[in-house]
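Data deposition worksheet. Section B asks for the primary sequence of the deposited chain exactly as it was used as input, without tags or linkers unless they were present during the calculation. Section C holds the resulting structure in token form. Section D is free text for depositor observations; keep each observation to a single sentence. Incomplete worksheets are returned to the depositor.
Section A, Depositor: J.P.
Section B:
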Amino acid sequence: MPITVTGTSMTGAPALLVNVPLRNTSFVGRTGLLQAVEEQLSTQDTAAVLPHALHGMGGVGKSQLALEYIYRHQQNYKVICWIPAERESLILTALANLAARLRLVPAVLEGGGSAPAANTAVPAVLEALRTGAPCDNWLLVFDNAENVDVVRNYFPVNGPGNIIVTSRNRDWERLATSLPVNVFEREESIELLQKRSPDLSQADADRLAAALGDLPLAVEQAGAWRAVTGMLVEEYLGLLNQRSPEILDLDPAPDYPLTVAAAWDISLERIKENSPGSRELLDICACMAPEPVPLSMLRKSRGIEITPQVDPILRELIKLSRAIRDLTQFSLVKLDLRSDTLQMHRLLQNVLLAKQGPEERERMSNAAHQLLSAAKPGHYASSQEWPAYQALLPHVLSSQAVTSTDTYVRELVYDTTLFLYFWGDFEGAADLARQAYDAWSEASGEEDIRVIRISKILAFLLRVIGEGGESIRLNEKALEVSRRVEVDAEDLIDAMIELADARRFQGRFAEARDLSQEATERARTQLGPDDEITLRAAHSWGVDLRLCGQVREALPMDQETARRREEVFGPASSLTLNSLNGLASDIRESGDYPTARLHQEDVHRRARAALGDDNPLTLRIAGNLAVCRRRDGAITAAAKLSDETFNGFVESYGPHHPDSLALAINVSVDRRLTGDLEGSRRLGEETVVRCADRYGENHGHTLLMKANLAATLRALGELSAAQECEDDAATRLAETVGLHHVLTLTVAIGQANTAYQWLEFDRARQIDEANLPLLVEAAGMDHPLTLSCASNLALDLRGLGRRAEADEMEGRAVDGFERVVKEDHPWLLAARQRRRIECDVAPIPL
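Section C:
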């Protein structure tokens, strides 16, 4: 199959090996193939990073060839990483661990400590490999890379390193020169057989190799059998002939070699005679993934019943060790003591599964699910538990654990879904949640509590990946069913909070506020004020009050929520920091810009210390801090931080993620304020389109971006475009959030600025004059927005020749600014210098 190879250089010292399997001590021959690989590496243009592919029928030794190349040439590289590529989640795991080993993200602790998040670690390591910093000579091996399009997404384009791909998918031939790997040459088969059985004659080895078709996997299996049993070749050939017709009845696939199936069947029969429990354990493992099975999973099962044959083995470590030794002797599994795992070849799995009837397959699958559920790690949000979840993940997926109706297995699936989300694999989380929801709904019906719970998780994940329509319907259904069947208070309140989140996503802020208020009041009464769900509901209510423009109501509630969360969860908890982040928005939007900035600078320091710079909450807090700096007049510092944070989110989550969109809005404003008008316009126009695609044209975030874009267009002198943009935003906002919402009133300040720039002083006066009392009512007399409107109104009056009124209005505005902002604040300076004030609109996080 393909061996994708590019460029090489000698470094002398052996490479850092990451995730590389143990060397095959029985490897023989393949001299010509290994030489061909070496020659390609020495001549190929390393800038192209063009992968070749290693392909052929199953069992020919594609992976073993790549592995042997690694060990023979590890001194040619600085780092080599082996990447199981059959599933995308496995690629993410391997690359995230490589990022930790290269110290690009916090390291994975020895013995199973914390693991890096995929959505930050994978982009970081791909960029490092692409640029060659800190490692400029690397080798990546993508093993069993069947999905060409998925795997190619993880190639470091034009990086100073090499790529090897092993695959059965011939589509790789379209992309790279392939290196075909065939069965052994006869002398290679003989060499391996005699290596395993030194007493085997040349003639007998030749006869045995011929019967096995020189298939490497079959030759290895026969060699292992003979090494253990010492059986005469004639007798073994007789057994092969007896097994072959039976194997043919299994209807093998084209890459399912008859010879190796027959050879395995002989060993399987012996194991069944000597240790029925060991044979059954193989059948159970066959229902899992072909990736390594953690031995800890088998050791944790002593307290549960799996099958009568397997239970005695699992309940005594000495019996488990003996069973594994028997299986390894016959080359049915490989034991890796470094990683404490065992693994069987995927073709052996095919043989075992093909031999199972429907009832037996169901029984073995159920046993596999029980083993997995007994090994369920701790809390899914803890990075300390992520390595354990990563080890179980391929087996949860391959075993179809979503089909189980067992309560504990469903809990494992539920927690694994949330692990994927917290780990950063949003698409993988949504896919698993979808599978679980479909399977559980069909098996248990919509009123089952676990169906309700997984439907809420699926709804949330669909919003995360940008599929909001179905998400809303799922949340509506979850709350309707929860009310109808009278679920526990915790589940009902959770359904209310989730639907409130969905309503925010829709831009229906008032409905969201009413739902979160009901949830909070119920929780306080039924669960108590310090309960985790109560505090979550209160936090949600505070968000909704902010979005509705009711900042003065949100402020004391968020202060109380933050205080209680700090008492319950501690000052470094992400829940506490999240509430403090919301509190900063309250303080800022209430008009106290200096205090908001001081508060958020402290929250940012605490988040960085507790969570790290790349944590999504830390980035979210940094984005909010950038707005606080801007509103406090620190334009340059704000622009630098918002740009860094925006790039971090886009790199980790993509440009369409809600946080990326919110930060794009702020970066567009910062670019305008720092003089990059074209950059501001370009990003603003892109973000309007992206917000409309994600939220809809009438959503508050889409409309406030339009208002900010209008300010940029106004600065560029494109007044007609500015007026069209902000008039449309104002009309839609009046219909959605209301005429008296601070957001609508802020847009009106911009409309007056456009009229003034047209020299239509009376129209500007009319807008500002009507807007001023509404701002006083909504925000307060001394709010900077109110004072900005007053300052601008003074200019309108001055343009109309009404100087006395203008002077009085200007004096009131300047006096007010001097009380609430710093001496060098741009808005105060503009009021003193008789310049129009442009008020930006910052998005409130949903």
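Section D:
The mean pLDDT is 88.
Residues 426-444 form the longest helix (19 residues).
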